[in-house]
Amino acid sequence: MLAPELKIDEAVTARALARAAEPLAPLTPEVGAELQAIAGGCTDLKLIPGVST
To answer: What is the Cβ-side half-sphere exposure of residue 9, based on CA atoms within 13 angstroms?
Structure first.
């Protein structure tokens, strides 16, 4: 499904997706809040190009 869109050989795409990391635990509201806090810190430090507060 991704290979034609990315213009990458289907076998290469399948291999890359098979190697991709999978979550080790469900995404809970607490984990979401922690990730959002990290993202907010990166935004505050202006580490994300094109994002302004």
So the answer is: 3
